[in-house]
Amino acid sequence: MVEFREASLPNGLKIIAEADPNAHSAAVGFFVRTGARDEEPADMGVSHFLEHMMFKGTDTLDADAINRGYDRLGARNNAYTTTEMTCFYASVLPGAIEEATKLTGTMMRPALRTSDFDTEKGVILEEIAMYQDNPFWSLYEQAMAHHYRDAASGTTHGLGHRVLGTSETVSAMSADRMRSYFESRYSADNTTVALAGAVDFDRAVDWIGEVCGSWQTTGPGRGPAKTEFEPSELALTSERVSRGYLLWLAPGPGVASADRYASALLMQVLGGSDNSRLHWSLIETGLAEEAQASMESHDGVGDQFIYASGDPERLGEIRGVVEREAAGLAASLTEDDLEKLRSRFATAFTVGGERPGDRMQRIGRRWATLGEYTTLEQELEKIRAVTLDDLRRVASTYPLDRRTLATLTPEASG
175-185 and 114-132 are packed helices; what angle lies between their axes, rounded to 10 degrees? Predict the structure, then answer.
């Protein structure tokens, strides 16, 4: 029997759990409500930089001790940074969850030594260079910056920031500036600890209080999402690519919107991995090598994505097919489309619900973003409740033709 529990430390740190005494593993995640969106343009990449620095050691534990600690516990641990969140997590056997929780919490008060900062800067610059060599990521990052740019001021909203930063912002970043960002954003009242699986919640609150009870409260805020967009196009060329790439970005529902379920289903009909409109019209016909569509919800706004790649000489044809399929999507929807998608989503949600690590991520991300909890069954019910009328209404509310269209093609020779 899965039981949801919640508690708060006096300093404002939130602790939540889906406790399941019958689970064969346990998981913990520390979710900090900060990411690329919350950075000043000159500090772009600092959240991701801090993710790296967490593993470099504290005043009492060096990097090797942290790594050996997780290894000794047999933990599956890692971290990630997004535009809105940074997460540090571990999955272990039930008997190791206390130590894994304490180790992760301790790690999140790093020494932030200048020597480590200088060394890690080179690692991150290499990572940025690696992503710049990937055509999709190069196009995606530039398209997002253009999509979230304010035409009047010429500035880019934080949702258009690059998570890794740029080579310029990371090169110019100072250790003092990183420390200042850490002190303001990595506070108790900006952190949620989520647990799932075989966890004694009351004892877990005590463990977390021992490690995190002294964390400061800073009251960090977050600016509003950019919700006004003007359709535009961005044509990029590069001597590094030999194929043609197309990325289509249109506003969608935010994470708090009930419409996000219908939007996610709608984009799967358009560009799911198989048996979708784009699959049959672009992949099966041999016109494109890749074609997909998806939806990502943020705090306050969402993004509807369409991506395709193929012969650069035929990118105009690919674009024409995408425009045709997007324009005809609402009218083409059938009850059979909806039923298949309901079943697919239900399977994916249920399989994930069987793993404490996945459950921890689901509840942690939602609580850190919205401060609320929904059960897996409630999520499934919202998906099952979506109707064809809902899909058509969402298609009208968030029209795909109100978009940023970005292309990347080979640089002309000569």
Answer: 90
Distance CA 31, CA 44 (A): 20
pLDDT tens digits for range 297-317: 999 999 999 999 999 999 999
pTM: 0.95
d(CA 23, CA 5): 16
Q: What tokens does 244 get?
A: 């043609």
Dihedral, CA of residue 354, residue 356, residue 359 and residue 365, to nearest 10: -160
C-beta separation of 185 from 40 below 8 A: no
Res. 152 pLDDT band, cuts 50 70 90: confident
CA gap 84, 129 in Å, rounded: 23
pLDDT at 312: 97
Distance CA 147, CA 403 (A): 8
Secondary-structure breakdown of the chain: helix, strand, coil percentages, each rounded to the nearest 5? 50, 20, 30
- Per-residue pLDDT tens over the stretch 341-351: 888 877 877 77
CB atoms within 10 A of CB 136: 14
Strand partners, 302: 252, 297
Both structure tokens of 76: 């599956």
What is the number of residues in the chain? 414
> What is the Cα–Cα distance from 141 to 28, expressed in whole angstroms?
31
- Other Cβ atoms less than 10 A from the Cβ of 408: the count is 26
Say which residues have a Cβ less than 8 Å from residue 247's Cβ, sequence separation at least 6.
Answer: 139, 140, 143, 305, 306, 307, 405, 406, 407
Per the CB < 8 A criterion, the answer to whether 389 and 335 are in contact is no
Q: Which two tokens stand for residue 121?
A: 């800067």
List the Cα angle 226/31/136 in 5-degree steps.
Answer: 55
